[in-house]
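Example 3.2
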Amino acid sequence: MKLVGKKVTPFNKKQPGTLVISLDFELYWGMQDQLSFTTYKDQSEENADHVVKSILECFEQSNIHATWAVVGFMFYNNFKELRKDFPGKVPSYRDAQLSPYHYLNSIKNEKGHRDFHFSPSLIQEIAKSENQEIGTHTFSHYYCLEAGQTLEEFDDDLSKAFEVMKKVRYEPRSIVFPRNQIHREYVQLCKRKGITSYRGTEKSWIYDLKTGENKRYIKRAIRFLDSYINLTGHNTYTLQENEETMPLNIPSSRFLRPVCPKLKKMESLRLKRILNDLTYAAKNGEVYHLWWHPHNFNANLRENIEFLNRILEAFLQLKEEYGMRSMNMKELQMEFNQNRGICDEADLLEKMDVRYN
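Structure, written as tokens:
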């Protein structure tokens, strides 16, 4: 979704190019409506700890700043704790299979489930790592465009996400909407709660997501091809200032698809696509926003880390040649607002009319 205002001016053209990275950290909660737990578990060659620590090591080596949008369920230690702390209203999706609460009721044997659903210690490790932001991916991996759910239910979900994060001293400022399902009213509700940035989608019609988008195979096929061949442009941009700027839309530029052994011969095309985009952003002083899920690296971890390192090596070269920098979503938003004359976060929240829960 692109917010439209009357006054549109470019964001500080003199800024150097910027690499933004965001990760949707959700474990099985992001897949429970798509894959059986057994299938998800069998496909996970590596555990979440190893995957996340490998990514963090890459980031540390290249001084990469990133936003980790975390599902609220993951802050609990086990199912018993979670079941005692549901929000007042839960999503009433018309398709009950979409609801993690429906899934929770179906679990008969919890043995072997914990590491695929909960990870408070790993979240703490991410937060302690330099330049890493902890954002929210909603409390229950909430779908804002699915039939049946309501704005009031989303309000309760997000309030609970804030509550569980505040207990461990996190104050989320960035949100990534699950499945990139973005609704104007829901964005404005986030604003009232103190969210200052969100990840929007690419401009092309193939990234214009609607309810049930995962079933729209034509768009999915074109998005797949766009990962290898330039069909939609570089998807880099300068941030725009308008009357409805807050929370700031920091659109995605490219989903980092995982390595697929069957498509090994095409990996050079996929890498070239990303590096061309990144180079364009560096030369033109624009933003390039790369994103993925840590669980995308669960299989073929070594190959995926090698691919990521090749991207980061190119970034370091562009940093040296063009002054390109790495920023997480919160940092980019703060710089954007400082350029608008808003000195600090307290000033921004006051202007946003934040209503604390």
